[in-house]
Write a structure and sequence with these properties.
The complex is a heterodimer of chains A (113) and B (113).
Chain A lengths: L4 E3 L2 E4 L5 E6 L6 E7 L6 E7 L2 E5 L6 E5 L5 E5 L8 E8 L8 E2 L3 E5 L1
Parallel strand pairs in A: 2-11
Antiparallel strand pairs in A: 1-3, 3-8, 4-5, 4-9, 5-6, 7-8, 9-10, 9-11
Chain B lengths: L2 E5 L2 E5 L4 E8 L3 E9 L6 E6 L5 E4 L2 E5 L3 E6 L8 E10 L5 E5 L3 E6 L1
Parallel strand pairs in B: 2-11
Antiparallel strand pairs in B: 1-3, 3-8, 4-5, 4-9, 6-7, 7-8, 9-10, 9-11
Classes of the chains: A mainly beta (113), B mainly beta (113).
């Protein structure tokens, strides 16, 4: 098991609602990346935070936003949820921006109905 | 456009039957190529990072190699416990040195006893 924990593990939301997902990074890691993984697909990069600043972003709309806190834990916020946002959301932490030896959490399964 | 393609999509092997998985990429400014293993319902597990063409890394029955256009994950004498989805990802430096990560869709490996 990695030291990366995500909460909650499962979540059901209604279209149009907002959701906040949380990630605690592994001890000593200052970089957190978030990914969306649809069923049967590889993870898609949402964004990366390094020492509390956004350090990279994939092709996701602005309603996907994030934060990293001084203890390097992180949040992913999604506004105005759409049915297509249903997916497994993964968080990965690493000790550097290069994501070398990134460790993933178990993910949050989000279902939008 | 940056792209990562994995083949085959699925692979069935008999225990002990060696084979290779392919990850081809077309990206600008490759910073690193990563291999992960993912078991159903779990987050990806880090295997290797490769940085430059000609580099090779080994771990137990797995060996990863990198060329300028593709990477191979060689599996020697696989066992049923090697059954999983194997994911390849690349790290590139985007505009303003922002990191971008691209995952392939994965190869689902099934090793029969």
């Amino acid at each position: 098991e990695t030291g990366v924990t995500q909460s909650p593990t499962h979540l059901i939301k209604t279209r149009g609602q907002q959701v906040t997902l949380r990630c605690s990074s592994q001890s000593g890691h200052n970089t957190v990346s978030w990914y969306q993984q649809a069923l049967g697909q590889g993870p898609q990069f949402i964004f990366q935070y390094y020492r509390e600043e956004e350090n990279g972003r994939g092709n996701f709309p602005p309603r996907f936003s994030g934060l990293q806190f001084p203890n390097y834990s992180s949040e992913l916020n999604v506004n105005a949820l759409e049915l297509d946002d249903s997916a497994l959301y993964l968080c990965a932490s690493s000790s550097n921006k290069g994501n070398t030896e990134a460790f993933f959490g178990q993910g949050t399964r989000l279902t939008v109905v | 456009e940056d792209q990562v393609t994995q083949s085959p999509e699925a692979l069935r092997l008999q225990e002990g039957e060696s084979s290779s998985l392919n990850c081809s990429y077309t990206v600008s400014g490759l910073r690193g190529l990563f291999w992960y293993r993912q078991d159903p319902g779990k987050g990806p597990e880090f295997l290797f990072t490769l940085y430059s063409a000609g580099e090779e890394k080994e771990k137990e029955r797995l060996k990863a190699t990198l060329t300028k256009k593709e990477s191979f994950l060689h599996i020697t004498a696989p066992k049923p416990e090697d059954s999983a989805t194997y994911l390849c990802a690349v790290l590139t430096a985007g505009v303003y040195n922002f990191n971008k990560f691209y995952f392939g869709s994965g190869t689902k490996l099934n090793v029969k006893p």
